[in-house]
Design a protein that fits this description.
Blueprint (H helix, E strand, L loop, with lengths): L19 H4 L5 H11 L4 H5 L12 H14 L4 H10 L1 H6 L7 H10 L1 H17 L27 H24 L1
């Protein structure tokens, strides 16, 4: 055979290991989540609950919140699946700083901080909305004509906005309950 192929050496040893930071695009959603967890979200309740810990040191709440937030954004809710993707998926590995919490640690963290997580999720959703990354509404994928509520009378008022925020809070509670059940 005369065809040359690119070098392929699966057992080759690397002198310098690759950096996950280089593998993750600068505008990736996981970078946004890491940034808001570090700078915007209030995690005092998480840290306060660890005043009297015994045994092995727990995972940093920032790590766990980052992994859980990104997991919910991409549809990964199961603790076992989160454990798997923290090893297999670059974005999760980057968020977890190459650590891989086991599913029990993730489930216990979620159960221990369920109410605080709901509050943090709402904060994150508000930040995403303010950044223009999301909006509340319906999406139609077919050609069905839908009657629109686009009149001035139907525009979003402050009262309707607070009502929508309550609906959003209920949806976050339902997602957390789903995750607890899983």
């Amino acid at each position: 055979m005369n065809k040359r192929f690119r070098a392929f050496e699966p057992a080759a040893v690397m002198l310098v290991p690759p950096s996950l930071d280089e593998w993750l695009p600068q505008n990736h959603l996981s970078r946004f989540i890491a940034d808001i967890v570090e700078t915007q979200l209030d995690l005092k309740k998480f840290y306060a609950s660890y005043a009297k810990t015994k045994g092995q040191p727990p995972y940093d709440p920032r790590l766990m919140v980052r992994v859980l937030l990104y997991g919910y954004c991409v549809g990964v809710r199961s603790s076992r699946e989160l454990e798997r993707v923290c090893v297999d998926v670059v974005a999760f590995r980057w968020l977890a700083a190459q650590q891989a919490p086991d599913f029990r640690s993730i489930a216990r963290f979620r159960k221990r901080h369920l109410s605080s997580l709901g509050n943090v999720f709402l904060q994150a959703l508000e930040l995403c909305r303010a950044a223009g990354m999301m909006s509340l509404g319906q999406v139609a994928l077919d050609g069905t004509k839908v009657r629109a509520n686009a009149s001035r009378r139907k525009a979003m008022s402050y009262a309707r906005l607070t009502e929508k925020q309550k609906v959003l809070a209920d949806e976050v509670s339902a997602l957390l309950a789903d995750a607890d059940a899983i």
